[in-house]
């Protein structure tokens, strides 16, 4: 669900944005062709809230910011240790994660459909049930997968610089579009 708010006039320019939330529930399991379990039944429940704002500082310059906070709970069974393959140790339980992601960006319109952008992000992602609890042959990828129930959130920091300009439409296509 997403709710956009009406633009608000600030001393720096119009401010527009949205807030929202996302809920997800997944029950997963995986069996090999032989009937062995690649992934014992696992249950994932997640709820995330997000907020996005854009400030139009001028006709050409705008700034953007976003924040996303999630609560994810993954319940399942997998290997805790395979130090002794004849007698593996199992983990059965629930792992809970709270990934937080945010970003800042600036856009500058040079005109002629050319936009310069600069974005910085710090993002986090909770591991999926298969990454935590897999334990067997995966025939689609022809691999043997072993999850790690002790994984933490995956984290990344990025900086992106870009220049965007759409390709020009060929004259023949312009004529066809005009005729339509």
Automatic annotation (TrEMBL):
Pfam families recorded: TonB_dep_Rec_b-barrel (PF00593)
Top-rank taxon: Bacteria
Residue stretches spanning the membrane: none
Gene3D superfamilies, alphabetized: TonB-dependent receptor, beta-barrel domain
Compartment list: Cell outer membrane
Domain TonB-dependent receptor-like beta-barrel as annotated: residue spans: 20-164
Protein's name according to its UniProt entry: TonB-dependent receptor-like beta-barrel domain-containing protein
UniProt key word Membrane: yes
GO cellular component: cell outer membrane
UniProt keyword annotations, A-Z: Cell outer membrane, Membrane
Key word Magnesium present: no
InterPro entries assigned: Beta-barrel_TonB, Beta-barrel_TonB_sf
